[in-house]
Amino acid sequence: MIERDLTVRSLSPLALHDGRSRAQFTPGLDYIPGSALRGAAAAHYLRTYGKDEAFHALFVADQSSFADLLPAMRELPGRLLPATACLCKRHGWDHTESLTDSLLRLALVEEMENTAPVDDVRWKHCPAPDCGQERDRAAGYATPNNAQIKVTSRLLTGTSIHRATGMVESGMLFSQEVLGEGQFFRGTVRIAGGEEAAGGLRARLEALLPVGERLRVGAARSRGLGLVEVTDWRDPWAGLSLDSRWSQFKRAMAALWKAYEAKPGEACFSITLESDLLLRDPAQRPITRLAEQEDVAELIGLEGVTLGRHVLRPTTVRGWNAQQGLPKETEPALGRGSVLFFRITTADEAAVRQQLAAIEAEGLGRRRSEGFGRVRVCDPFHYTFVLQEMKEANR
Fold it and tell me: What pTM was computed for the model?
């Protein structure tokens, strides 16, 4: 498998609707969905080369997978804050030092049946001088070093034109939320297959979308919206290996458990959704809640583990099939940023790590070629702040 990061810059407002237009106001997304990028690339391929074997491999046989393009800086990728992220309730990103994560503390609360880990005033309140406000859930995007990435958006207002008179039609004022120009978006494209085959497809794709190439994505393209320019192809941001993340996660757990005089239990790990997850039960019903799912581990291809604490962001996935000119199936999903905490019960750590490595590489659930189902095991965000806090507490 080959992975390459694609960066684009918006040259016009981007109308990426978060749902169907049924009212006078249509909210928008703050990122470019992988499905929108994939559709735009496929249409451009047909105009440029026509339908050939490479087109079939890239866009029909699902050998390629286009991740969501998240807000980024020119040189640094962006990441969505997980659902367990916390910031100062009153000042938010203005008090950057308040940024932290609650997953391991919530897991410890569940194990201890005691809320002391999250009620601890040293953690519960913002550490900024002369603040003292409580921390609350945070949302948004950050760089790998946890600096905020700001996303600019605005409203575009228009009217419908009466076809007979050519004048403004009464009662047909509408507004839509759009992303502003000049912003960068970055995501990872995966191409499956052997080195030779995947390398050939990579070369074809990068020739199709060279630096400087322009595409249109999203809605209202005929009105001048949705223009983006390819600014860069590069290798993905170098992160820690799964083994390194695993050991650091384990170390942070041990330190936190010790701080609250809790006995260490089974080995544990986390799975963080980097994109929406379309998961179905054996009866092919969409899964949006996990409280009643005793076989979650089996559904995602794990053995010997049990689901513990989890924080979910339910969502609904929509889309548009440009070839058919019809909307795609609307489907409930587990939203990106959701976090699952697992305990290893009957398996050994090495076996579980091997299963998780495959899941990280291949993804989970349905429609993976559109970027759905991408996950991160033992995300550093969940343990970095814990290690810092334990280090400061021991000074």
Answer: 0.88
The residue that leads in pLDDT, 286 or 48, is: 48
Q: Which residues pair with 168 in a beta bridge?
A: 161
Per-residue confidence (pLDDT) for residue 294, from 0 to 100: 64
Domains of the chain from N-terminus onward:
2-78+148-234 (3.30.70), 242-393 (2.60.40.4350)
CA atoms of 311 and 84, how far apart (whole Å) = 7
362 burial type by CB count under 10 A (0-12 exposed, 13-18 middle, 19+ buried): middle
Q: What is the tens place of the pLDDT at every residue in 132-164?
A: 899 999 999 999 989 999 999 998 887 777 777
Q: Tell me, what DSSP letter sits at residue 109? A: H
Could you tell me if 271 and 375 are in contact, meaning their C-beta atoms sit under 8 angstroms apart?
Answer: yes
Contact residues for 125 (Cβ-Cβ < 8 A; gap 6+) = 131, 132, 133, 134, 135
26-67 pLDDT, tens digit per residue, is: 888 999 999 899 989 999 999 999 998 889 888 888 788 899
Q: Largest Cα–Cα distance of the chain, in whole Å?
A: 77
The arithmetic mean of pLDDT across residues 267-282, rounded, is: 90
Interior CA angle at 71 toward 312 and 156, to 5°?
95
**Residue 12 identity (one-letter amino acid):** S
**Half-sphere exposure at residue 66, Cβ-oriented, CA atoms within 13 angstroms:** 20
Structure tokens at 185: 């978006």
The residue type found at 90 is R
Q: Residues in the chain, how many?
A: 395
The gap from C-alpha 195 to its chain's centroid, in whole angstroms, comes to 27
Interacting residues of 307 by C-beta distance below 8 A, sequence separation 6+: 290, 293, 296, 297, 340, 341, 342
Q: Return all residues near 216 (Cβ < 8 A) that are at least 6 apart.
A: 40, 225, 226, 227, 228
Q: CB-based contacts of 245: which residues, under 8 Å, 6+ apart? A: 377, 378, 379, 380
Angstrom distance (rounded) from CA 123 to CA 107: 15
Q: Residue type at 248?
A: Q
Q: pLDDT, tens digit, for every residue of 3-33?
A: 999 999 999 999 988 866 556 778 889 999 9
Q: Identify whether the C-beta of residue 151 lies closer than 8 Å to the C-beta of residue 177.
A: no
Please tell me the distance from the alpha carbon of residue 379 to that of residue 88, in angstroms, as a whole number: 22
How do residues 158-177 score in pLDDT, each as one tens digit? 777 777 777 777 767 778 88
